[in-house]
Design a protein that fits this description.
- Helices cover 0% and strands 41% of the residues.
- The protein is mainly beta.
- It has a single domain, classed as Immunoglobulin-like (Sandwich), CATH 2.60.40.
- Strands 1-8-2-5 form a 4-stranded mixed β-sheet, with no helix packed on it. The chain has a 4-stranded antiparallel β-sheet with strand order 4-3-6-7, with no helix packed on it.
- The chain is globular and about 35 Å long.
- The relative contact order is 0.42.
């Protein structure tokens, strides 16, 4: 099973904004090929991560302006090169210095 780890600071932002970003760290042994987020756990939106996130690397991802009026609590999951999908995990994306780590 794939796991998701979280590291963040104690300071909160007032709302999710297109200028807000977070870091995705791939600590697994497989390339991340997709990252999805959902406010309700039923409807998922995709982050553009280009050609993916290679194992052992990190990348910064920026919220789209379409999320400006959304809440802070979201679920996130990753799809890997072997087509496995991590379990969704909830995060408060209004936290500063949010880092989401996907691991084996």
């Amino acid at each position: 099973m794939r796991t998701v780890l979280l590291a963040l600071s104690l300071f909160a932002l007032p709302a999710v904004s297109h200028a807000y970003s977070f870091t995705i760290t791939n600590s697994s042994s497989s390339r991340i090929t997709g990252v999805e987020v959902s406010e309700d756990g039923r409807s998922w939106g995709y982050f553009d991560i280009g050609r993916g996130i290679p194992a052992g690397t990190s990348t910064e991802v920026v919220w789209d302006s379409s999320t400006d009026d959304s809440g802070c609590e979201w679920q996130v999951r990753a799809t890997f090169a072997d087509e496995s999908v991590s379990d969704p995990t909830s995060f408060d994306f209004c936290e500063e210095d949010l880092e989401i780590e996907f691991d084996d």
